[in-house]
Amino acid sequence: MTEHTTSTLDQPTTGSSNDQSEAQHPLVDAGMQATESAGHLAERAADIGLQQADRGRKQAASGIDKVAQTIRRVSTEMETEQPGIANAAQTAADQADRVAQYLRETDARQMISNVEEMARRQPLIFLGGAFLLGVAASRFIKAAGGASGQGQGDQGGQYGRSGYSTSYGAGSMSDYENTGSRVRNGNEDF
After folding, report:
1. Rounded Cα–Cα distance for residues 31 and 20 (Å)
2. Shared-domain flag, residues 68 and 131
3. What is the domain range of residue 134?
4. Which partner from 2, 30, 40, 68 sits 20 to 30 angstroms from 136, CA to CA?
5. In terms of domains, do 119 and 100 share one?
6. For the CA atoms of the chain, what is the radius of gyration?
7. Are 113 and 102 in a shared domain?
8. Where are the alpha helices (DSSP H) in the chain?
9. CB of 45 within 8 A of CB of 104?
10. Do 69 and 97 share a structural domain?
11. pLDDT at 97
């Protein structure tokens, strides 16, 4: 007489207990294939991400080189008038050159490895740097968003509201934004 067991996801239904090791449940096969496919997709996505990072790294190095050249040019022009500032600018240009060289010579995987190593060695410095980077990024995003939203909603712009309403009636009012001062009934308010 053969034994029949109930099927679960972990153990397939078989005709006898001896056949359990030989048979594979279809859902187990599908799960293994899905896991394998997900692994391949994750590897591919990581490769694409690293390729994009390398492309951005090269563009950043090029941009930093241009900035360093500009700083050097300004530094040489300022040398006679303000040597202290020119020296500081020259130092900044040297640092920019070193950053550009690092970006050109180090691939994205090595950079990630360097950041991970630094985070392990000095976690407080890493967290502080991450915080500062986040603050800088948020200010940049806020500034970029503010530029596109100018002229909408708030009439006062950078000067704020003028404080005048249309209920004042008589007297001449000029456009506050155009004159830079408020004029009412011929008197200027500063």
Report:
1. 18
2. no
3. 108-143
4. 68
5. no
6. 33
7. no
8. 26-78, 83-105, 108-121, 123-148, 176-179
9. no
10. yes
11. 93
